[in-house]
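Contributing new records

If you add data, match the layout below exactly. Sequence lines come first and carry their own label; structure lines follow with theirs. Keep one chain per record. Anything else will be rejected by the validation script.
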Amino acid sequence: MNRSIQRLYVGIIVAFALLAGFLGWWQVVRASSLASRVDNPYLYESQRKIDRGRIITADGVVLARSVKVDGGGETKYRRVYPKGTLAPHVVGYASQQLGASGIEAAFTNFLGGDYGAQPLLQRIRGAKHGADVQLTVDSRVQQAAVDGLAKVGSPGAVVVIRPTTGAILAMASSPSFNLKDVATNYTSITKRTGSPLLNRATQSRQPPGSTFKVITASAAIQEGIATPSTQFLDNGSYVVNGIAIRNFGGRVFGRHDLRFALTNSVNTTFARLGVELGSDRLGARMDAFGFGERPPLTDLPPSEIQASGRFRGTTILSNSQRGEDVARMAIGQERVLATPLQMAMVAAAIANGGMLRQPYLVSRVRDRKGDLIRQVRPEELGQAIRSDVAADLSAMMLNVVNEGTGTAAALNGLQVAGKTGTAEISATSGNMAWFIGFAPANNPKVAVAVRIENTPLTGGVVAAPVAAAVMKAALEAAR
């Protein structure tokens, strides 16, 4: 009997010890992470009592700030967005009812003052001020991207990157929304056509079309299969698995070299190269450019960034997986899907001598006294292609803009390198029109990817002019 009571006591003591341990873990060790979860309904209500930090562009434009409101006898704050339509997908929103998105979600600890020793200092001094987050986004470049998409009038996205650092100068998605409407008209935003809350730049995957040919060309040159002057013969058709691959518009190019093939986007030549490379070597180059994994853009919530690569339905496949149509894969069709962010990273890597940089949206975080809390240092992800291969590609892409399918991306007095793409989806859905490129070609300062959806036009006609306007704005802003 005594033994039974003793076991019961021991069991009770162990249970209480476990309970105390769990409570201590969640209330002390994990308290901060629980408080910062975007689905925590108490987070943003409690932060109404905090003067949340500002979100500011690289050139000093305030995109988000807090203002005092009547809180029934106590000081409370309301979030306002002075430029609500400029970069809503990047800035995001913070709401008790809706949670948070964008920078507002990813940097809520800093914006809400919940970092380092700050929470303790708040309790001691009664200070309730968040830190300011400064973006890499330049308002002038961002506005050019927004205006370019608005002028086209079709859904689409633009991403602009500084090749040497990975800093994102602009990220725009259309259709868009006004951050000022989120608190009062969120339901109406969700009911609009075209999914305006979707950040097409990072979340929407589509066939990249002929822009993918720069990856195929890089693989062929890197592997020693071809050089820019290697000769090919095109008779207008290349049959794979009983199905003919033809050139856009049914054109026949005859004898030509690889430089000409990229300049004029010869499908048959790149399909041949794909077959010769095989899925293993082409897949290895895709791996090197970052396909197959979510881009390491840590400044947005992971749910707002999607991986590019080869897909079967919604399942991502190994880039080197055999048994797929590598010929159509080599021309950016088949199962290859990409986001504008991924294709901008490709263009930036080529512009940067083959070195792929980690993309980022936030340059620094400062407290209200101006002291630096966090400073971002550019990071290398790896050498996607050799520098000599990048130089060959740059020269070939320069031809695309000077005399090929991308002439609409040309800028007066500057050499622009680029590649167009037109993925034919269906007669009803229209085309996915692309342009990727960089400028100046001999000393790149800006790289860009533009995608226009559901259009009857080609990438050279509709996406290249948007890219030209955005690159011009970025180069002017850098002066």
